[in-house]
Amino acid sequence: MTLMTKFLGAAAAAALSAGAALADPALIYDLGGKFDKSFNEAAYGGAERWAEETGGSYKDIEMQSEAQREQALRRFAEAGFNPVVTTGFSFSTPIAAVAGDYPDTKFVTIDGYVDPEEHPNVKSILFSEHEGSYLVGMMAAMASDSGTVGFVGGMDIPLIRKFACGYAQGVKAVNPDAEVIANMTGTTPAAWNDPVKGSELAKAQIGQGADVIYAAAGGTGLGVLQTAADEGILSIGVDSNQNHLHPGKVLTSMLKRVDNAVYESMTAGADLEAGVEVLGLAEDGVGVAMDEHNADLVTDEMTTAVEDAKAQIAAGEISVHDYSSDDSCPALTF
Amino acid sequence: MTDTAPAIELKGISKAFGPVQANKDISIRVMPGTIHGIIGENGAGKSTLMSILYGFYKADKGEVFINGTRTEIPDSQAAISAGIGMVFQHFKLVENFTVVENVILGAEDGFQLRPSIAKARKSLKQLAEEYELNVDPDAKIENLSVGHQQRVEILKALYRQADILILDEPTGVLTPAEADHLFRILDNLRNEGKTIILITHKLREIMEYTDTVSVMRRGEMTATVRTAETSTEELAELMVGRKVLLRVDKKPAQPKQVVLSVKDLRVTDSAGVERIKGVSFDIRAGEIYGIAGVAGNGQSELMEVLGGMQAGTGTITMNGEEIDLTGRYSDGQSRRARSIGHVPEDRQDEGLILDFTAWENMVFGYHRDPDWAAGPLMNNAGIVQEAEGKMQRFDVRPPNPHLTAKNFSGGNQQKIVLAREIERNPDLLLVGQPTRGVDIGAIEFIHQEIIRLRDEGKAILLVSVELDEIMSLSDRIAVMFDGRLMGERDPAEANERELGLLMAGISEEPDKPAWKAVDENLDAIEHGEAPKHG
Amino acid sequence: MDKMPAWADVVLIPLISLLLAAILSAVVILAIGESPVEAFNLMVDGALMRSSGWGYTLYYATNFIFTGLAVAVAFHARMFNIGGEGQAMLGGLGVALACLYVPWPHWTLAMLGSTLGAAAFGAAWALIPAYLQARRGSHIVITTIMFNFIAAALLNYLLIGVLKPTGSMEPASAKFDPSFALPTFQQMFSSADAPLFRGAPANVSFFLALAACLFVWLLIWRSRLGYEIRAYGWSQTGAKYAGISGTRIIIISMLISGGLAGLMAVNTTQGEAERLILNSTEGAGFIGIAVALMGRNHPFGVLLAAILFGFLYQGGAELALWTNIPRELIVVIQALVILFTGALDNMVRMPLERIFLALRRKES
Questions:
Q1: B453/C141 Cα distance (integer angstroms)
Q2: Interfacial C residues in 213-252 facing B (CB < 8 Å)
Q3: Given pLDDT bands bounded at 50, 70 and 90, which one contains residue B459?
Q4: Which residues share a beta bridge with B493?
Q5: Residue C1 touches chain B, beta carbons under 8 Å
Q6: Which of C169, C316, C323 sits opposite A324 (nearest CB)?
Q7: Of A161-165, B103-107, B501-505, where does the model show the most confidence?
């Protein structure tokens, strides 16, 4: 027993020396890893911004296995981190399992949903990706000469279909006759990081006449953007502003402000308000990226149309169908 | 001769493997231009001694002199440059290379192959003329007969300028005629001044072809004598350490009812080649039916069909009941159920599982016998007990049933197989190559056991490439050649020469030397032509 | 003559291999500016010095026991079953179907049902490669590894479509009925004043794994079938001589192997996640190869090796939690262990054999 306490002490010391203090926030990335060039990295960016601005410190960890999710949540909660922020919908189930045991700790699930009635210490942050995708879909249809636009998804999961479905609806809203070619890169997590395959898919879509391609595929999307630039057609980035990657070749980017969600959760600290928050167009949780890199590509007509649609969606006059609500899409078949 | 230095002189060579003393203080002198035989039982240390000479092992103690100068041989490369060539029992040839390619392998001159090949071709031609070492330089090894492959091994050594040639059990795989040819080649080599060391366990070869002979027993050199001054009996006694019965002592057979009847058996192998081309014979209770022949003429397939390892067509009846020949996997079991025991030709690959213990091997093939069951499991304790008894009765050494089969010597492995099959008391025992690689002491025992079974009124089918064995054990002899039985002989009337010709597919052709006819026929087979039947 | 005593083969070689792997890992950790001693302390502390750590170690070990046994059984017939991953995925499907569509009255019955389902689905997934090997000669390594991909694609299809509850974002099945949840070690061994295994996923299926070890031992070393499997594995011609059907041995041993791999899903799917998720196997099928190799294909060795790998997994998680050692390096450390215990076996074995020979010579 003495040996055990000794080791426990050593562990605690190690934990402290690693720079953790009580009530620091913690951030847990999903299996994709910290530097996935997608939303895990955006979350990291938000946390860094918070640390820089407040001078505070936080603890983060990357997942290696499914069973580790619950373990990490528990260990962080036990060590006194608050709030514990997680990225990726896969955390909603483990958080639901763990939250009850640590009522004093606040948990945040970004992209996930945990019933606030059952777990009053959990905050779910969701994004209306379909709405943002709708807007870039409109821009794609307006920029397209051929009337054919493409979509390259990462791993074939409902979330990505939600992107694709919103995009297709936006395209059809502008040009009902337009054709949307949608491809998923793969069915395993490797599909998030396969730029070569992304490039192949982009080429195939170009071969079928697409002249604007929207990539919602993490690292795979970089291959799509590259190929689109090489082949002289337009592309649309995702999650963070990717316009600068190929100035003048990326029509726009569908922004998903995971960084803001992390930043604000950390700023609120232990006083974080639990519940469900959906960040849509109105909250600037999603949006289209306009900057000097794509200024020449975006016509006034596009700007007006996007602004109008944005207002109409916010007012509820346009309802963009959410794929994940019923696993079906009126504008696109997969 | 007295003034010349010996071609090889070993002084006080000792070598131990752990607690086993493989060579103990061995000294030997071999004069140039002689054939020196080394004879001894398996495990006597012959191969270890030659491996030291060829640089595979390093001696713990002792010195090696080549042509009078002390020579260190740390590896085989050093042995080759000292002029030593070795022909192994199992050839070390690349099967899908041609003869020339094999000859130059490891002795190429430069980066480019072409000049080496041209040079080798020229020297092969020369060697062939000098020593009757005829081989087609462009034939692939896999298409050559065993005898020809052996010649390639000799050519390889000679091409590397070997003056001393070591041959390890060279005649084990040859027909008598091929063996004769080999010895004529060796004779030619000796006349050219080459020195030859011949390792064998066949006393006849020693007596006929060597100038001097050394006998080894349990790691020691028990004697070195001039061949002319010794006798077969003396050598055998020196080898085994006691008097040995070289002739098998047996009463005349008393055949009774027909046990096995084979009619028009045909077997086609997986490549579509017909290996057995209509064979018919009967075996009666109380007799040994011996089938002689050069390996590869269908004997193996015959044993496999009878043992249930291969499919065939025709009719086989066992004790009057017809046997299923469709070649299902379960046939091995159903043959045993019909009281057919099977001592397979290849005990290491078929008759035993070398990585099983002796007791596990004692029920191999009979492991589904209800006697050995304990509910859903095997009655291991019972099997061990039974195995102990069988090992004692068959004098398996060491009599430890928990020892892994691969740790027994060849003779003792064979005794394990025989104990298993004979103790089942089968009506028919198939015995393939019962004494291949088995030492003289064990051969005697194995032969006695086979005859004892015959005298108990069992039928025995004996297949062996050792003509001596067939002649001394069998009550009737048939020779198999190219998938056919070449007629039956009474062992009392048959002579070795006649059988040897039958083994080569020749009935009678007195003008031609036998070996030449054999060569022609083998060549014909290699080239896919039908062999000439005399 | 055996070159080494058996204990050296079974104990000394793995230990030395482990030591080498540990030394090299320490160098790696030093190179990135962390303290290897502290890292080791963290791993030991997190994995072995508290009951919840053991709870994770044994949870991972349970997976590795099943997949290790699967590889070992197939290997006794000289079948190299690389498909444990896919077979375990299908096992998960079996568990999910049993738990989603049958209203079991009690968790024990649910566990029985899911055990049968997991074994049946895992075995069925191994059957096709086994049949192709036995009848068509298609190499089992190639077919099983391809079947891993097919299994992943199949599960993906089912979890995105058929099995996913409507509206759910995750590619996962619905939660199983809570009454089917397997008792965890926490529930089994904790009392109010002595909480043990808090929150750890280790559950009653660990005992199922122990039972599987016993089963495999009886099967391989005590049964007629095991005798035939080993005989076929050592010598195919020998098996033919003895009337042992190669087709039968290949198919039966692969069925057992696939069934064992499938059983892993009882632990992950019913025991831990309580629903079928996309990547529940997480490479355990491949770890099983290393476990079997290190455990010398003996159930007891597999058990020990599985616990070692469980320790590495849990200790690695602790390292990721409390140090700045990136997870890629933790994978490197695990890979080093596999490399030394598996692939580089001879590197340790051969010098050791020489040492033993030399020692023996001195004695004599």
A1: 48
A2: 218, 222-224, 227-228, 230-231, 234-235, 237-238, 240-248
A3: very high
A4: none
A5: yes
A6: C169
A7: A161-165
Nearest by Cα to A94 from C204, C175, C314? C175
Residue percentage of chain C with pLDDT more than 90: 54
Q: How many residues does chain C have?
A: 364
Question: Residue B200 corresponds to which amino acid?
Answer: T
d(CA C74, CA C293) in angstroms, rounded, equals 12
Tokens of A88: 């990726």
ipTM attached to this prediction: 0.85
Q: Are residues C170 and A93, on separate chains, in Cβ contact within 8 Å?
A: yes
DSSP line for B169-233: STTTTS-HHHHHHHHHHHHHHHHTT-EEEEEES-HHHHHHH-SEEEEEETTEEEEEEEGGG--HH
- B160: Cβ–Cβ under 8 A, 6 or more apart, which residues? B80, B85, B107
CA B239/CA B219 separation, integer angstroms: 11
State how far the Cα of A49 lies from the Cα of A41, in Å rounded to an integer: 12
Does the fold of domain B255-339+426-503 match that of domain B8-240?
yes
Alpha helices, DSSP H, located in C182-283: 185-189, 205-222, 224-234, 236-241, 246-265
Q: Find the range with the poorest average confidence among B203-212, C12-21, C46-55, C163-172.
A: C163-172
Angle at B114 between CA B113 and CA B120, to 5 degrees: 90
Beginning with the edge strand found earlier in the chain, give each strand of the sheet holding B428-432 in spatial order: B340-343, B428-432, B459-463, B288-292, B476-481, B484-489
Q: What are phi and psi of B234, to 5 degrees?
A: -65, -45
Instruction: Tell whether C35 is within 8 A of chain A (Cβ).
Output: no
Structure tokens at A227: 């190929």
Domain B255-339+426-503, CATH class in plain words: alpha beta
pLDDT > 70? residue A2: no
What structural domains and CATH numbers belong to chain A? Answer: 11-128+261-268 (3.40.50.2300), 130-255+287-326 (3.40.50.2300)
Distance (Å, whole) CA A181 – CA A152: 8
Please give the structure tokens belonging to residue B192.
Answer: 């050219």
Question: Quick check: helix, strand or coil at residue C1?
Answer: coil
Task: Specify the fold of B8-240.
Answer: Rossmann fold (3.40.50)
Query: HEC profile for chain A?
Result: CHHHHHHHHHHHHHHHHCCCCCCCCEEEECCCCCCCCCHHHHHHHHHHHHHHHHCCCCEEEECCCHHHHHHHHHHHHHHCCCCEEEECHHHHHHHHHHHHHCCCCCEEEECCCCCCCCCCCEEEEEECHHHHHHHHHHHHHHHCCCCEEEEEEEECCHHHHHHHHHHHHHHHHHCCCCEEEEEEEECCHHHHHCHHHHHHHHHHHHHCCCCEEEEECCCHHHHHHHHHHHHCCEEEEEECCCHHHCCCCEEEEEEECHHHHHHHHHHHHHHCCCEEEEECCCCCCEEECCCCCCCCCCCHHHHHHHHHHHHHHHHCCCCCCCHHHHCCCCCCCC
Structural domain spans, chain B: 8-240, 255-339+426-503, 352-423, 508-534
pLDDT digits (tens, 9 = 90+) for B429-454: 999 988 877 777 788 889 999 999 99
Residue B530 pLDDT > 70, yes or no?
no
Output the six-digit token pair for C51: 């009951």
Q: What angle do CA B209, B211, B212 make, to 5 degrees?
A: 120
Quickly list DSSP for B58-117: --SEEEEEETTEE----SHHHHHHTTEEEE-SS----TTSBHHHHHHTT---SS-HHHHH
Q: CA-to-CA distance for A57 and A20, rounded, in angstroms?
A: 7
The 8-class DSSP code of residue C8 comes to I
* Structural tokens at position A188: 């395993």
Contacts of C198 in chain A (CB under 8 A): 74
A276 touches chain C (CB under 8 A): no
